[in-house]
Amino acid sequence: MKQTPREPRATRPAHDPRLLSVTLAAGDDGCVLATVVGELDAATAPALDAEIRALPAGETTALVLDLTRVGFCAAAGISTLLDLLEHTNSMGASLALVADSTPVIRPLELLGLADRFTMFPSRSAALASLGTAPAGS
Question: Which of 45, 51, 68, 101 could cross-link 76 (Cys pair, CB 3.0–4.6 Å)?
């Protein structure tokens, strides 16, 4: 019996930029606004993590993660948010989440993690609570 070679299986790239984008805007006061758009899952969460960890530790005083345009947040996304909370705390920076939609809020609530984060329904509310405004806000 003759075997025919199989076609190689297509693999998903480590990060498909069509699935997630992160835009950073930093103010002179050390506040960074990160606007996250797309899906936050095992394939894309490492990209968000890398973007935030690349911020200069001594210069970043606050991080606002705008997640209002995240349409899906899997367990890997939640795990990354927890890691980023720990990371910002270790830098001495505060972290505020902007979330107004079920794809982000519901998993945090179901897992009992919503109270671990400072969350706001709008970017302006988050920035006002910090008493700051990064460039491009």
Answer: 45
User: Residue 5: is its pLDDT beyond 50?
Assistant: no
Q: Kindly report the pTM of this predicted structure.
A: 0.83
**Judging by DSSP bridges, how do beta strands 31-40 and 118-120 pair with one another?**
unpaired
Percent of the chain with pLDDT over 70: 83
Q: Give the C-alpha distances (Å, rounded to integers) separating 45 from 6, 15, 21, 38, 137.
A: 32, 9, 10, 11, 23
In the chain, % helix, strand, coil (3-state, to 5) comes to 35, 25, 40
Q: What is the rounded CA–CA span in Å between residue 52 and residue 84?
A: 8
pLDDT band, residue 136 (cuts 50/70/90): low
State the Cα angle at 64 between 63 and 66, rounded to 5°: 145
Distance (Å, whole) CA 32 – CA 64: 6
Distance between CA atoms of residues 95 and 86, nearest Å = 9
